[in-house]
Amino acid sequence: GENVEQHPSTLSVQEGDSAVIKCTYSDSASNYFPWYKQELGKGPQLIIDIRSNVGEKKDQRIAVTLNKTAKHFSLHITETQPEDSAVYFCAASSLDSNYQLIWGAGTKLIIKP
Amino acid sequence: DAGVTQSPTHLIKTRGQQVTLRCSPISGHKSVSWYQQVLGQGPQFIFQYYEKEERGRGNFPDRFSARQFPNYSSELNVNALLLGDSALYLCASSRMTGTGNTEAFFGQGTRLTVV
């Protein structure tokens, strides 16, 4: 079955700098890759997603890139702000798995003032 | 529009008891999925329902069961609770057109504590 690995587990960056979180997946049939932000005591919030027919997608300060050959995808946050502090999860899904989301272990992003 | 709503938000149960968690999806969404999130880990898939039929089941014991109602709301039942069942239970709602995966939106979760 699918396995998703996420790195780093903790990332501390200075406010205003960029943050990059990386994920790798094992199942070449995976074709949908969402990223979620989870704040303490809340459910995950979808922030951006990408499908396998696209290499990059941007939404204001957030971007996601996908390398299907290498089976990895990354989340890029530019001009980080204090409100970006949270745990970020990557996930992958495919038709073979009936679109159930397989999640990474999460990255705790800390924005230092 | 209301988002995904889950009830209750917090629950404390004793080992061996049974619990029922409830979820109302976003209006127009026909698919509901349930996930278990243990503290410090990513969510683990439990069940997916689409049009009242089970579409997927994760690696959870038979003590876990679920159903979806005609109005697309859903219940997750856990019998014979164990201490290890303590977790945040998340419900996700999606349109699930059947021709491809669509965005999944999560509720705030139900925090279950088994003592």
Care to describe what's here?
The complex is a heterodimer of chains A (113) and B (115). Chain A is mainly β and 113 residues long. Chain A has strands at residues 4-7, 10-14, 19-25, 32-38, 45-51, 56-59, 62-67, 72-77, 86-92, 102-103, 107-112. In chain A, the strands form 2 sheets. In chain A, strands 2, 4, 5, 9, 10 and 11 form a 6-stranded mixed β-sheet that branches. Chain A has a 5-stranded antiparallel β-sheet with strand order 1-3-8-7-6, with no helix packed on it. In chain A, a hairpin with a 2-residue loop joins strand 6 and strand 7 (62-67). Helix content of chain B is 0%, strand content 50%. Chain B is mostly beta strands and 115 residues long. Chain B is globular and about 40 Å long. Classes of the chains: A mainly beta (113), B mainly beta (115). The A-B interface holds A 6, 31-32, 34, 36, 41-46, 49, 89, 91, 93-95, 97-106 and B 4, 6, 33, 35, 40-45, 48, 55-56, 58, 90, 92, 96, 100-101, 103-109.
